[in-house]
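Hi again,

Forgot to attach this to my earlier email, sorry! This is the prediction with magnesium ion bound. I've pasted everything inline since the attachment limit keeps bouncing my files.
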Amino acid sequence: MLTIKNLHVKLEDEDKQILKGVDLEVEAGKVHAIMGPNGSGKSTLSYVLSGRDGYEVTDGSATMEGEDILEMEPEERAAAGLFLAFQYPVEIPGVGNMTFLRTALNSQRKARGEEELSAADFLKMIREKAKALKIDADMLKRPVNVGFSGGEKKRNEILQMAVLEPKMCILDETDSGLDVDAMKLVADGVNALRDEGRSFLVITHYQRLLDHIVPDVVHIMANGRIIKTGGPELALEVEKNGYADLLTEEVA
Amino acid sequence: MALPQAKLDMTEARLAALSLPGGAAWATALREDALARVRVMGLPGRRDEYWKYTDPTTLTQPQPPEAALFAGDETPVFGGLDRLKIVFVDGVFDAEASDDLSMAGIEIDRLEDVAKADIHWVKDLYGVLETRGQVPVQRPLAALNTAFATDGIVIRATGKAEKPVSIQYLHGSTTSDAILHHVIKVEEGAELTVLENGPAAARFNKVMEVDVADGGRFNHVRTQGRDHQRRAATHIFTRLGQESVFKSFTLTANGMLTRNECIIEFTGDDGVAHVAGACVGDGDFHHDDTVFVTHDAVNCESRQVFKKVLRNGATGVFQGKILVKQGAQKTDGYQISQALLLDDDSQFLAKPELEIYADDVACSHGSTSGAIDETSLFYLRSRGVPESEAQDLLVLAFLAEAIQEIEDDAIAEDILDRLRAWLERRRK
Ligand SMILES: Nc1ncnc2c1ncn2[C@@H]1O[C@H](COP(=O)(O)OP(=O)(O)O)[C@@H](O)[C@H]1O
Ligand SMILES: [Mg+2]
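Structure tokens for the complex follow:
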């Protein structure tokens, strides 16, 4: 599904290399997790994949189902099936959550040559999906993320994912700032979307999210590189011993 | 004090291209008075402080610059509302296209007709509010209007008007120079909504005097559309009685030069006046909102909300003043003007002013200009919304605060539809 090869990324305005050769292959239907200390480049990887400005790819490639995504506009990547649940969801005063969701969905459909969803069909669909995530009508009516609690914002990200039904879902620290109940809700939302044709890249700082969203593969990222790859047990090892041991291994 | 020679020459050159309309003795006297005011003040020039940000040359030159007609297929705004429609084409009343001028609760006449009558209520009001509005800042184009307006609508509301009066200004000639003067009297406890739309003429000078008696309510919503090369100077003068309410909203899209002045005077306690504007300008566009609010009564609330979206070198101007006179205690004055600059070539020039002579008041004003929020733009795009559409969503969000000032939901929806259509058309 997603193939990243030798990806090198620096900041556009600064002479600062952040990703220093990332290799990663996420197969269709699989859940991969990336763990790593703060500042290791996890968010940068997610932003570069989704097309945010401010970064320069100096080497390497990233393809989704064989297509070079780095050449695409952010909206083209979205229409091709890429989705990023933001670590810090953005508040947009004045743009209604519903309007936003419907515009996003119909833009993607249009881009793929599919028919747009009518207002009535959309309403029906969104109500069902919102209910599962315990998002009430009021939250749907409010401006995007404005006045939402941390947990509400993260749930809103998952709602967007459920509505847009992407193929490749990247979740950047979706667990941060969530209490246990909220995390469970988010994890259930993600698990409900697990499917043979859909892949996940779950970025997290802590192991606890992975108790709920059980990954197939776990990668450890440090200093702009994937330094170790393993099964779910790798996450438990990190939980127990921290990153220190792994980092020393890397240096050695 | 004698006028500088250049101003004098410029003024006389303009006056030479005009002639006073005929009418009853009272009308002629009022027009001659206004002409005398023009001669004392002289027409505005580039050096005048009040025209620092807006060049009045094309508004004062004897003939207007030519303005191409806009070939659009869009149906005019307000078409779906139940309304009494009045149509002017290049400033000339179009009886065929207009509805019958009668409605329960209000009297509607044409200025051209009543100016010939010996007796009419308008003779006690015509030019009166304009004259009051000449102090402390001179507005010579308004006096010019009072002197030379060929027509207009005069309305007296004695009850609650059952539907809005909708004045539509069509533009049919590339050289038309229209001068219209409306006078509106809202009697005690009466209520009236006036809608205006359309480009009007190659050049348009319009004055609307609105006298709102105690407990009266006046609502005004207008659009100034895409007929791009038009130039306009408009003035609203309003005097507000006790517990009266005045609300005015304007949506402007393009127009090479628009100067909209609104002069509000509270003379009775507990009045409310809200004036708002949203504009979207692209390229060779200059839009000026100039507002002057005088609080001369206790416990009145005034609110100014102006939002401008500017791109490709467009210019937005805001001059807004709140004057709180001695004794106008408990005044609540609010003013915000904001510009969203979609590129580095566009500019917003703002002069917000407060002048307060009472000690127990709450007044605030703010003015900002900024670029589109890149983080929001990326967030929208990352969900699949194309860049131009994402930008429009943010533009609509930016303008929302001004549009929310429209009281009537159906009218607000109409305005929003029009704005969306304009934005969409631009994208294509
Ligand atoms: N736009 C930016 N400007 C400056 N530094 C940045 C920027 N983006 C990322 N960085 C730096 O790059 C490194 C990796 O950051 P990030 O990708 O956010 O890490 P993580 O998500 O793993 O915590 C950090 O040192 C961070 O400060
Ligand atoms: Mg991060």
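The pocket of magnesium ion (ligand 2) is lined by residues A 42-43, 87, 172-173 (CB under 6 Å). The interface with chain B takes residues 50-53, 73-75, 77-79, 83-84, 86, 89-90, 92-95, 99-100, 103-105, 107-108, 111, 143-144, 160, 164 of chain A (CB under 8 Å).

That should be everything now.

G.
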